[in-house]
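Here we describe the complex-level prediction in full. Unlike the single-chain runs in Section 2.1, the two entities below were treated as one system.
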Amino acid sequence: MFSRFGEASRDFALLDEFRRRLDRVWEDMDPSWPASSSVGRAHSSSAWPRVNVYDGGSNLVVKADVPGLSEKDVHVTLNESGLAISGQRKVAPPEGYSAHRQERSSFSFSRSLTLPCKVNPEQTQASVKNGVLTVTLAKAPEAQPRQIAVQAH
Amino acid sequence: MANQTDLVDRSSGRIETVQQREAIAPLVDVYENSDELLLLVDVPGATNDGIDVQLDKGQLTILAKRREEPPGSLLAAEYRACDYSRVFSVPQGIDPSKIDAQLSGGVLRLRLPKSDSVKPRRIEVKQG
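The structure predicted for the assembly as a whole is:
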């Protein structure tokens, strides 16, 4: 049963299994790794927070995962070059506890995004809910979609 | 070779889920004091009704579902809306009925109180 050959091939099978599991760990921990083809500008592996940009027809919506941050911790700035999101994430260990595992960390962050069209700065709104920052930017009148009537001849 | 249509991927021994929706491992802090274990879990986008925490046979399973309607068509994406799932083996002496979960600002706060029998007890030394 346990010939030399059999044992060797079993070891190789274990190695294969190990490698496959390691690949899975990367996929599980970071859904954007390897970076998907739909990722837009300003992407780097250290970019925080991760941002999704949506086109809502008459407006643009920028969403970012900012767990643990309140509206006071996030600064949203709109200028000619685009939209900037910055702030500080503070993770303070609770008093009187000893730490077993600390994966969440404190850091400052700053990101700027180039917007795909002109927006109306007066009608920009930002809110934080359930740890997700949502910035809604109304498109400028010239960037609004316009329905063109198709005429019969 | 294992049959590819199996519900369980026998070649890797990993049990696959019926749903295709993927789950990622959220970042977790674990703290302890003499009364309890405290877990802080980053689950941005999850809401109260999507959270499922279970302690069974020393395994703490944390599941948080994310249900968000996209506000339009996607122009650029750096993250996908996926569920969060993580399993910890916890030491004995945690009372499952007293586990307390609070969700605030995308952070799940789990308190696992220790039962009285495992709490440290100071022994008085009596004069002989």
